[in-house]
Amino acid sequence: MLLEQERRDVCLTARALAADPGTAPGESGTVSVRSGDLVVVTPHGVRLDQIQPADCPVMSLDDRVLEGRRDPAAEATLHMAVHRLAAEHDRDVTAVVNAFTTDTVAVSSVLAELPAIHHRAAGLGGAIAVTPYTTYGTGEIADHAVKALKGRDAALLADHGGLALGRDLGHALENLRLLDWLSGAYLRARQLGEPRVLSEDELARVRERDTYGWAGPDIL
Length: 220
Known about the structure:
Residues 8-187 form the Class II aldolase/adducin N-terminal domain. This protein is 36% helix and 17% strand. By secondary structure, it is α+β, with helices and mostly antiparallel strands.
């Protein structure tokens, strides 16, 4: 079986998504991971918590299905576009996760951009763009997502949910959960008033600060 370990890892990540209480039930997202020029993606027509390794299609970067007992998920078009871009630009991205969580759907249905109101947003690239709405599973949504991901490790797909990238599946899932947390924090803040947004200079200082740990006590 091609990419057997990667297929197992995709199943484990899909189950982790399904176990999140904020994720929609059923086919509530898509998971993929790239190894060289081959990509494993979750299948169409199977709940995330019921996917088996043999279900997962293995695809080439030119969209050919090489193996797998089920068809690729509808959003495979979006995932393959991101993987092609990462491969072409030699970007340290091998995994893509998108999911329909309560908070990412809520934010993506209202805002044009998720502002950076917490320093952890710097880890995703700063403010997160929301793509224009279009039908899921189409080349159009893939094109919008690729543009929104420029300089970012996450994007929000209008009225659809969140999308995150990572150097591996664990990192991509962590980034998706961070995106979901940032969305929830913004929604809570808006209940109190207009949130203060971190500037690009402030985010740049956060990125610099992230490069080292404790700096010792301040000298008075």
